[in-house]
Design goal:
Layout (H helix, E strand, L loop, with lengths): L1 H12 L7 H12 L24 H18 L10 H5 L2 H9 L6 H16 L12 H15 L15 H8 L3 H6 L7 H9 L17 H14 L7 H16 L18 H6 L2 H7 L5 E3 L7 E3 L5 H19 L28
Antiparallel strand pairs: 1-2
Helix pairs in contact: 1-3, 1-15, 3-6, 5-7, 6-7, 6-8, 8-11, 10-11, 11-15, 12-15
Length: about 350
């Protein structure tokens, strides 16, 4: 997955074209060789239950497959085999039932499964952008389901047992690109904008606390606002002010090596230690200053250091903000994703996007 992040980050920053065709081909082959011919899933490597703290092995495989499809697309290639679950998902009733049965107590987590399903359908040979049947019909049925589930007060997709605006907002970004790709405006846009604006922290980021936000959480809010602003003029001045603030915050966390961290190195006060003595052990062992992508020990990284996830999402956020504020003046190089999903955006033909 780190290889996929590197490829997608290079595409976003305009560096992918610095590779010659032989280098691109070798990268594509390395990814294609990890695909299972029976299931169509891509293997991120050996998965041991003891190495996974927050997600199942099946989830990690779907996640690796999602990113492999996108990385291959960036390299001008495709998977060698179809993703078999797309055949089941092409039945609209099955697709809706599969999505509905997920863990909606945690929309942020469940939204990733929805995103995987939509991409598996969209990347199938039978998908068409016209009036749907098969994969296209199932794709639209999932969007219909999301329409019905969207909260009219917050404009988000809330947990089914209460309200958590941050969790719901981090889920929403996994849906909005697919609506716009399909030419459908999301419902309750003004309410969604109000909720997203309210999430900014004093440090200019959007996570659960000052100094605790990751690149994913920040992009979720930033790109959602940029997308919604294309079809809704609600609180335009407030969005512009927010974008200026968070852009400066992003410039402020770039490392001397040119890269960006996913999570910042976080300092804990004595008061916080007093409230949670368990944090002392985490700091003594060094665990508190490390993070794991999807909770997998093989994707462990030191907070504050440049990493491939931050190296894709942080510049992507800055590119989107610059395009919103300065009408492309600062973001001519690079391109957005051609396939809907993370990093997809409206763009001009000159930028090479969709």
């Amino acid at each position: 997955m780190a290889t996929c992040f590197e490829i997608l980050g290079s595409e976003c920053c305009g560096e992918l074209d610095s590779l010659n065709q032989d280098q691109k081909d070798r990268l594509a082959v390395c990814i294609q060789e990890t695909q299972d011919s029976e299931t169509g899933f891509f293997s991120p490597g050996e998965l041991d239950r003891g190495q996974l703290s927050s997600h199942s092995a099946s989830y990690i495989r779907m996640q690796a497959t999602y990113f492999s499809i996108h990385a291959l697309n960036a390299l001008g290639e495709k998977p060698l085999f179809p993703v078999r679950i797309a055949e089941k998902l092409s039945n609209a009733d099955f697709a809706e039932g599969w999505i509905d049965a997920g863990n909606w107590r945690n929309p942020w987590l469940q939204s990733n499964n929805v995103m995987f399903a939509l991409t598996f359908l969209q990347a199938s040979d039978g998908f068409t952008k016209g009036a749907g049947f098969g994969q296209g019909r199932a794709f639209d049925a999932i969007l219909d389901y999301l329409d019905d589930r969207q909260d009219s007060i917050s404009g988000m997709w809330q947990p089914d047992d209460g309200r958590d605006d941050r969790n719901a907002a981090f889920a929403a970004y996994h849906f909005f690109p697919y609506f716009y790709f399909r030419g459908r405006e999301p419902k309750f846009q003004a309410e969604a904008i109000d909720t997203l604006i309210s999430l900014m922290q004093p440090d200019g980021f959007f996570g659960y606390g000052v100094g605790k936000s990751g690149a994913c959480e920040d992009l979720d809010v930033i790109h959602s606002l940029v997308l919604l602003s294309t079809t809704c003029q609600h609180r335009k001045d407030d969005i512009q002010e927010l974008m200026h603030t968070t852009l400066q915050s992003h410039f402020g966390i770039q490392n001397s090596d040119g890269g960006f961290p996913n999570y910042l190195k976080y300092r804990v006060s004595l008061r916080e230690f007093a409230k949670n003595p368990g944090m002392i052990k985490a700091y003594c062992t060094g665990r508190a200053q490390r993070w794991r992508y999807s909770g997998w020990t093989k994707l462990d990284c030191l907070k504050g250091c440049s990493d491939t996830w931050g190296g894709w999402f942080r510049p992507l956020s800055m590119k989107l903000i610059s395009g919103y504020l300065f009408e492309q003046e600062l973001c001519q190089s690079g391109q957005y994703r051609a396939l809907p999903g993370l990093g997809w955006h409206f763009s001009t033909p000159e930028q090479g996007g969709s």
